[in-house]
Amino acid sequence: MSRRWEKVGIIAGGGELPRQLAQAAHDMDAPYHVIRLNGFADEAMKAFPGDDAGIGEAGKIIRLLKKSECDAVVFAGLVQRPNFGQLKPDWRGAALLPRVVAAARKGDGAMLDVLVETFAAEGFLVIGAEEVTGVLRSEAGTMGQIVPDDVAYADMKKAAALIEAIGPFDVGQGAIVREGFVVAVEAAEGTDAMLRRAAPIIARLQGEEGDGGHRAGLLLKRPKPGQEMRIDLPTIGARTVELAAEAGLAGIAIAAGESLLLDAEEAIRLADERGLFIHAYSAEELKRRT
Fold this sequence. Notes:
With 290 residues, the chain is an alpha/beta fold. The protein is built from ten helices and 13 strands.
């Protein structure tokens, strides 16, 4: 795979994505350096070459990346919005803080835009996760043995339209719809917490229908309108499948070409085993099927 960069800095939050990026770079013998964000990066990231830094230490992060001769940077993993009053920024972080706080009032998307602009202004090429691996973005189609039915396609259309409609409010990237009924919309808690929150609601609906074993409904993830596509793409993985199965859902839908599927083989295996579908949809497909 040809690259636009010589050495990439991986700014690592929590979750599986940073580890997969570092492992992919290692396996391809592509130069990389990890910046582990204190309080967010998983312990497993210490297995890869890099440094630790606080989320408010923008100057330190930039200095470390330049010292290690990185010409590109990728942001990966979960980072909860910090308590700005309790941050301990370095001088560069302190100078950047007013812009970040002002952007945060507009939403997480605006805050991420500030970070992208800051690193780009320092001469770094800001890239998406797929540029490190080349294989993460999901292609259109059903993955695995379970295929969504017409009811599922109708739920996909409603969930996708819902996220589109609330996009200007910078709400999350996910929604759960069950046979036309909106069960949950992702907010600041993230996808895993939303699935746990939705589980008792779905169980109640199953009980009212008199069929506790009936799987119905889906989790749909898609980018928010106008989202910066190099950061925070919608992501699912094996853990998402487990939680969706525990919640009683029939499947998971993601926007084709605009979402990341981690641990694809394991996620698909689990979906087949638990009786769920994983489907990457396109807008054209939803118009054609519903």
